[in-house]
């Protein structure tokens, strides 16, 4: 079996209505390079907490997208060319993956392009491309 197998993709929308405004990016954001920097974080659950299912994570994500509604929007440009976030409530891209490996079997995870390719799909990597989804969340079971 592959180290990690992606089994599905879903768009998770906010759990309730959100504002539909436009948010300008800060001057510091405007100087940033326009590409995603893949980052993966592993956390061991507390012994007293049951491991959440993909459905639990999707529900939690939909709830958190209400107060953080900009993350359910899309990058765009204003008529004068300034980069901004259009709060569209389109949702965040959620990828679900499975692996037979335990966290310990992954070994010491070192951030690299090769390791990120094991866990992060290639599409959705260009936040300025309006035809691609720009936010990825993963659930591993």
TrEMBL record:
UniProt cross-references to InterPro entries, sorted A to Z: CAT-like_dom_sf (IPR023213), Plant_Fungal_Acyltransferase (IPR050317)
Stretches assigned to coiled coil: none
Superkingdom to which the source organism belongs: Eukaryota
Keywords: Acyltransferase, Transferase
Molecular function, one GO term: acyltransferase activity, transferring groups other than amino-acyl groups
Family from the record: Belongs to the plant acyltransferase family.
Protein name: Uncharacterized protein
């Amino acid at each position: 079996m592959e180290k990690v197998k992606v089994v599905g993709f879903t768009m998770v929308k906010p759990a309730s209505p959100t504002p539909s405004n436009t948010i300008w990016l800060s001057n510091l954001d405007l100087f940033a390079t326009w590409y995603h920097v893949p980052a993966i974080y592993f956390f061991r659950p507390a012994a007293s907490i049951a491991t959440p299912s993909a459905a639990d994570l999707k529900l939690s994500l939909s709830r958190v997208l209400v107060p953080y509604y900009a993350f359910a929007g899309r990058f765009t440009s204003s008529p004068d060319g300034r980069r901004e976030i259009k709060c569209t409530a389109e949702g965040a891209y959620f990828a679900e993956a499975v692996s037979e490996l335990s966290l310990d079997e992954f070994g010491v995870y070192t951030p690299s392009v090769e390791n990120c390719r094991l866990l992060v799909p290639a599409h959705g990597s260009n936040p300025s491309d309006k035809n691609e989804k720009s936010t990825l969340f993963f659930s591993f079971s």
